[in-house]
Design brief:
The complex is a heterodimer of chains A (145) and B (298).
Chain A (H helix, E strand, L loop, with lengths): L5 H24 L23 E10 L4 E3 L2 H4 L3 H6 L1 H6 L5 H10 L6 E14 L2 E15 L2
Antiparallel strand pairs in A: 1-2, 1-3, 3-4
Chain B lengths: L9 H6 L3 E2 H22 L2 H4 L12 H5 L7 H18 L5 H19 L10 H9 L13 E2 H29 L8 H9 L2 H7 L4 H15 L8 H22 L4 H7 L35
Antiparallel strand pairs in B: 1-2
Helix pairs in contact in B: 2-5, 2-13, 5-6, 7-8, 7-13, 8-11
Chain lengths: 145, 298
C-alpha cells in the first residue's frame, strides 16, 4: 500500500480544515460574490405562498417589426444574468443597447434590433400552487435613437 | 511516498482511508472527460462571453483580488482551447500533476468568467474540489488494486464537498428563506419559470409541493448520514441522491451535472472495466477495514 509522508499528510489536513472553514464562513456570512465559497443558495428564498411569481423575459423588436425572444443562443447572455442585473437595466434602460449589440454580434445574418425590453410576467400563485393566470409588465425599454 | 506505517487518529485515518489506485484512475478519466464535455456540451454559453460587452462584466471577489482581466475574445478562446486539449490529455491519466494543475487553474478561471455576469451557479463546488485534489492523488493505472492513501484523501474530500453542497444548502435556505421556506411557494415559482409537463401535473395536486419542500430540507439535513450507513447501503443512498436529481431534471430541468460527476467519487468505479482488460495481478479488492493490519502492507 502506498502511504502518505508525514509532510504530505500534514499539508492535506491543513487544506481540508481551511477549505471547510472557508465554506462554513461563506454559508453563514458570505454572498454569491465569494464564489466558490459563497452560500449554496439555489432556491433558498421563501416567496409568499399567495404572492405572484416572477417570470422575466427579454424581447427585441427588429427593424422589420418582428418580435424576437432574446436567449442565450442568440445573444450569449443568459436570462438569469439579465435578471441578476435587472435593477441596473431598470435604472439605466440605455444599458439594454448592449443586449442589442450582443444579439447583433451573435446573429449577424438577422435584421438588427430597434428596440429591446424587459418584460415581467406575473403568474398567479395561491396556496403555494400556480393558478394558471398571469399579466405582463414592461419594466425597461430601450429604443434605438 | 511510502514511509514506515503510522497510526493516525481515527478521524485522520477516515480522511485518508486508502482506496484502490484503479478507482482514482477511473475517477480521473471521468472528471477530465467531463471537463471537455462541459466546455462544448453542457455549458457552451461560457464561450459566448467572448463577445459580451465588457460593461456587463461584474467581477467576483476572487477576480478582483487576483486582478483578473475583463474577458474578451483572446482570453476566452485561449482558455477554451487550452483547457479542451489539456483536459483530454489529462483524461489519459498520464502526468497527473503536470496536466492536472493547469486543468484546475484554467477551469477555475473558466468558471470565474462564467459567474461574473450577474448569475452564480451552485452546482460545481464538488467538481472544483475534485479538480484541485486530483493532481495530488498520485499516479494510478486503470485496474490497479494497490491501495493508496493519497487516492483515498482525494476521493474523501470530493465526497465531503458533494455532501456539503446538500447540507449547507439547508442552512442557506434557513438563512435566506427562514423557517417559512418549507411552506413558501418556492417550488411553484420554479415550476412557473422552468417547469415541464410532469411538473405541472405535480403542481396541480394540493399540498404536494409543500410536502416536497419539507422532503428536500430533510434530505439535505440528513445527507451526511451517507458517511455512517453500513458500506452495503452506501451505494443505495448514493443511488437515491442520483434519483433526486433525476426528479429535479424531470420537473424543473435543472441537471446539476458537475455535481453528479463529483458524486461518482462515492462509487467503486474501478469495477467498471472493459471485459478482458483486467491484466493486473489480483490483490485486496476493498479498503482494509482493520487499522492494525496497515503494518502488514508492503
Amino acid at each position: 500500500m502506498s502511504q502518505l509522508s508525514r509532510r504530505g499528510l500534514r499539508v492535506r489536513l491543513v487544506c481540508t480544515v481551511a477549505g471547510f472553514l472557508l465554506l462554513v464562513a461563506g454559508t453563514l456570512w458570505g454572498q454569491d460574490d465569494d464564489f466558490p465559497f459563497g452560500p449554496f443558495r439555489m432556491y433558498s428564498t421563501a416567496p409568499d405562498p399567495n404572492g405572484a411569481a416572477v417570470d422575466t423575459r427579454v424581447e427585441g423588436i427588429d427593424v422589420t417589426g418582428r418580435t424576437v425572444i432574446i436567449t442565450e443562443a442568440n445573444s450569449g447572455i443568459r436570462r438569469a444574468e439579465i435578471e441578476g442585473q435587472r435593477q441596473q437595466y431598470v435604472a439605466v434602460p440605455s444599458r439594454l443597447s448592449q443586449i442589442a449589440d450582443a444579439y447583433g454580434e451573435r446573429t449577424p445574418q438577422e435584421p438588427a434590433l430597434r428596440e429591446v425590453r424587459i418584460v415581467i410576467r406575473w403568474h398567479g400563485v395561491r396556496n403555494s400552487r400556480p393558478t394558471g393566470t398571469y399579466r405582463d409588465e414592461v419594466v425597461a425599454v430601450w429604443t434605438r435613437p | 511516498m511510502t514511509t514506515d506505517p503510522v497510526r493516525h487518529p481515527r478521524i485522520v485515518q477516515w480522511l485518508v482511508e486508502p482506496v484502490p489506485k484503479g478507482r482514482v484512475a477511473a475517477f480521473r478519466t471521468l472528471v477530465y472527460l467531463f471537463v471537455a464535455a462541459d466546455l462544448v456540451i453542457f455549458t457552451p454559453w461560457v464561450r459566448a462571453h467572448a463577445d459580451t460587452p465588457g460593461d456587463l462584466y461584474q467581477p467576483l471577489l476572487i477576480g478582483r483580488l487576483l486582478a483578473l482581466p475583463t474577458p474578451g475574445p483572446l482570453l476566452v478562446h485561449t482558455v477554451f482551447w487550452l483547457l479542451l486539449v489539456l483536459a483530454v490529455a489529462a483524461a489519459s491519466g498520464r502526468a497527473p500533476r503536470l496536466l492536472g494543475w493547469p486543468v484546475f487553474l484554467l477551469y477555475f478561471e473558466w468558471m470565474i468568467i462564467a459567474m461574473s455576469y450577474g448569475k452564480v451557479d451552485h452546482d460545481r463546488f464538488g467538481l472544483l474540489v475534485a479538480l484541485a485534489v486530483l493532481p495530488v492523488a498520485g499516479r494510478a493505472r486503470h485496474g490497479d488494486r494497490e491501495l493508496s492513501e493519497a487516492a483515498g484523501w482525494a476521493l474523501r474530500v470530493t465526497q465531503l464537498a458533494v455532501i456539503a453542497t446538500y447540507f449547507l444548502a439547508a442552512f442557506a435556505k434557513l438563512r435566506f428563506g427562514g423557517l417559512d421556506w418549507p411552506t413558501s411557494s418556492v417550488l411553484a415559482q420554479a415550476i412557473i419559470r422552468r417547469g415541464t409537463a410532469l411538473a405541472d401535473l405535480i403542481g396541480a395536486v394540493p399540498g404536494l409541493l409543500i410536502v416536497s419542500q419539507f422532503g428536500i430540507l430533510a434530505f439535505e439535513l440528513l445527507s451526511p448520514l451517507v458517511f455512517v450507513v453500513p458500506q452495503r447501503w452506501r451505494a443505495a443512498v448514493v443511488g437515491f441522491f442520483y434519483l433526486f436529481h433525476l426528479a429535479t431534471f424531470a420537473t424543473i430541468t435543472i441537471s446539476f451535472m458537475p455535481h453528479l460527476v463529483a458524486m461518482a467519487s462515492f462509487l467503486p468505479l474501478e469495477k467498471v472495466r472493459r471485459p478482458g482488460s483486467d491484466r493486473v495481478p489480483k490483490g485486496p479488492d476493498t479498503p482494509d477495514p482493520v487499522p492494525g493490519s496497515l503494518a502488514s502492507s508492503p
